[in-house]
Every structure is written in C-alpha cells, then in structure tokens.
Amino acid sequence: MNKSLLLGAIALPAIASAQDRPNIIYIMTDQQGAAAMSCAGNPDLHTPNMDLLASRGVRFTNAYCAMPLSGPSRAAMFTGYMPSQCGMIENEMPLVDSLRANTLGSLIAAEGYDCAYAGKWHVNTLSIPDGEFGFRNIKDNGDIGLAESCVEYLCGRNRKEPFFLVASFINPHNICEYARGQKTPHAPVIEPALEECPNLPENHAVSPYDASVLRFEQNQNYKLYPTTSYGPDDWRRYRNAYYRLTEAVDAEIGKILAEVDRQGLWKNTVIIFTSDHGDGNGAHRWNQKTVLYEEVVGVPMIVCLPGGKNAGTVSEALVNNGIDLMPSICDWAGADIPHGRPGVSYRAAAEKGAEGQPYIVTETNFNQTAGTLGWHVRTPRYKYVLYDKGQYREQLFDMTQDRGEMRNLAVETKYRDILLEHRDILKNWLKATPGPDRTRHLRFIPE
Q1: What is the CB neighbour count within 10 angstroms for residue 171?
Q2: Which segments within 110-262 are labelled E, that is strand?
C-alpha cells in the first residue's frame, strides 16, 4: 500500500466526528395548512420567517400528514408507524409500552446526539416527560417563552456533539378557541373592520358531490364545529384570525432563526419546518381538522440543507410528514431505521431532487364524533378519497386542475380506469401496512 495513503487512513477517526454529522432542528406548528404562508403565494398574510426558510431551503408542495388530528399525527412522526398501526387513532391515547423505548428521539440519542424538546408533545401527554423518549424537556407545552428556551439551549449546548432540537409550537391552533368565542391563550387576535378581512376562498361552497357523511359528522358536535351557522362575514373574520395567529407563530420562529444566524449554524444544520395538520379555514364551509380536504391534510414543509444547498427550490415529491420523518432523520444522523417502519426518507428528494414515492396515504378517524373512517391516496396527478359510509363516499380529484376539490371525477364514467387504479393502490397499501381491523378496512373498498 502507498505509504502516504496508509498515513492518511490512520489519521482518520474511527467514527465520523460531530462536525461530519449535521445538527438537526425540527420546527413544528399546529393546525397550519400548506397554503398559510406568504412564500406559498398567499397574499392574505405575511410570514417573513417561514419565507426565510423557503429562501434557504427546499419547499415541498405535496406534503401531507399521516392523520389530520394532533395526537395521531405526532405519534406517526415519533414512532414511524401510521396511527392505525400503533393504536393511536385519537387524541389522549397512550403509546404502547413496546414502542416507548424505540421512538425517534431514543434512536437519535443512541447515535450520540443531544436531544432536546420544547413545547407541545401530545403523544399522549401535552408536555413530554423529561428524560423519556430520548429527549430532555427544555420547555413544557405553550408558545409563550418557547422560542426563548430554544435560544437558551442553543447558546448553552456542548459544541463538541451534534444536537437534535424540536421546537413544537401550538399556533395557529388557537383558531379552535376563536371559533368557540373564547380567548386565544397564546396570542391575541385583533378584529379589524370587515373590509380588511380576507375574502372567502374560491372553494368555500360545498361541492355538489361531496361526501354526505361529512355534514353528518359536522352536526354531531357543536363544540368542535360551531361554524355550522356561520354566514360569509363570520367566515371572513375567522380567516382573518387564522392568518393573524399564523403570523404570531411566525414571529416566534424568527427568534430561533435569529440565533441560528448569530451562531452560523446554517452551515452544518438540517432545519425542517412543518405542521401536524391543517385547518379547513372556510374551504367547503369547514373549520377544524379530521376531514380529508386538501386544506386539512396538506401541510407546509421546508427542508433547509447544510450550507444552503438547493436554496430557494421547490419540490413536487410526495411526502408523508408523519411516517417519513423517522427514516429521514435517521438518514441524516447515520442511524439504522427500525424494521417494519413503512416510511421513506425524503433526504434524496431534498438533496438530489429525486422524484420520491409513487403515492402516499393519509388516514382519518372521526372518533370524537360518529366514528367515520377514511383514507386518501395521493399520486402525482390525482387524489383519491374514500370514507366508510354515506353517499358519494368515494371521490377522485385532478390535483393539477382542481386543487380546491370541487369536481368529483368518481361520478364520471370516463375516469373509471383511474378510479380503479387508485382503489387498487389503497387495497394493496392496506394489505402491506398491517394493523388492527385491516380485514374490516378492506371491505370498505368498492368492487
């Protein structure tokens, strides 16, 4: 062997140094839809810090949650399983003992990362227990003081080891309190003149062939859906409140980014920004979540790579921001992905512009009302939706021409082959993603 090569090999450390592995910052909001950012082309709000992330990273335009409800969505992120697989199909359900020591935080901590968590946890307690799931709790649930806790952590960290920091904000979730006429606890909402409020969305009306079970669900729980009697002016005020709450959390995110900038962490840090699910925000006269409308299941997602690689680009790759988080973080951290997790890493999509997955699936369960089940399959062009009951429970939309989901193609014969193709995708996914009640779930797919 060449002597100089041998000396060079000896000089290398046995394992990668901390500087060779990126720091990871995961910033999450709650109940923010993908369109609720000015960088997404929305003129009704101004989100300079989310825009900054988009200018320094890759913005994914086809990112979806695993389930449009907080607890199940977060369970998917930190266990790597779909909610129906790990049994967390509604809020406040405990994580099974067999998974408690095998979560994302514990995997990354085992790789030598210092793991810290600030804010809302909800898997299933609102705040993460300190020292559990691989994380140190540096701030309990609540937006006030959360950003400051993250800044303090970044200032006091051990600079010889990589870190994994989660900053989990509540807003714009306070829109739930606003709809009920309650005080918004984590940020105030100032009511302007009606003329200054955003107008109604183009898909404000309920489409003619919408799933009938959704109105049934809406009428089951006034506390969740107090907007059933809303008129146009009420919805405009609602939309104003939603966007102001989004701007409030954007300002908090800005405090963390300012510290990232001050310390020059951009050069060796992966920053991921997303939300656990969206909000109806007046589309199809819907507030809240759980439903499979695009405004609810579509989430913001931006990945900033070390050194500003691919800064300011947009990816149409399909991402499930729940189950795909674990393999992605493991990919960057050099950790092995536990066997049986169904997610796919989006690192290649962010770094190399890879096309990504041929489809992703989101599931839902209206456990808080009448118990309706549903699934949506998103392929590059189409979105297929299936509920377990009611008229027009099967839906198909062309997402290149009808992102607002106003024309249900499932009722048109000429789209029959595409409909059957998507039925088969869902059927095969249910078979390949084992979980409780899968045999019963398969029976809901029409023949």
Answers
A1: 24
A2: 114-119, 136-139, 163-168
Question: Is pTM beyond 0.90 here?
Answer: yes
Q: How far apart are CA 389 and CA 72, in angstroms?
A: 22
Q: Given a cut of 80, is residue 14 above it in pLDDT?
A: no
pLDDT class of 19 with cuts at 50, 70, 90: low
- What are the start-end ranges of the H helices in 93-231? 97-100, 104-109, 146-156, 175-179, 213-218
Q: What is the SS3 string spanning 173-195? A: CCHHHHHCCCCCCCCCCCCCCHH
**Reported confidence tier of residue 216, pLDDT bands at 50, 70, 90:** very high
CA gap 317, 108 in Å, rounded:
25
pLDDT in tens, 337-382: 989 999 999 999 999 999 989 999 999 999 878 899 999 999 999 9
Give the tens place of pLDDT for each residue, 185-205. 999 999 999 999 999 999 999
**Residue 20 burial (CB count, 10 A):** 11
CB count in 10 Å sphere of residue 380 = 15
CB 278 within 8 A of CB 297: yes
Closest CA to 425 of 413, 417, 436: 417
3-class DSSP state of 366: coil
Give the DSSP per-residue string, 51-68: HHHHHHSEEEEEEE-SSS
Structure letter (DSSP) for residue 269? E
CA gyration radius, the chain: 22
- State the burial class of residue 12 (Cβ atoms within 10 Å of its Cβ: 0-12, 13-18, 19+): exposed
- Angstrom distance (rounded) from CA 258 to CA 235: 35
Residue 17: both structure tokens together? 């140094």
Which residues on adjacent β-strands are paired with residue 362?
376
- Verify cis geometry, omega within 30 degrees of 0, for the bond prior to 408: no
421 membership: H or E segment, kind and range: helix 416-432
Q: What is the C-alpha to C-alpha distance for residues 362 and 295, in angstroms, rounded to an integer?
A: 13
8, 43, 156, 413 from 302: Cα distances, Å: 38, 19, 26, 38
User: Which ranges constitute the DSSP H helices of 264-363?
Assistant: 294-297, 325-333, 347-352
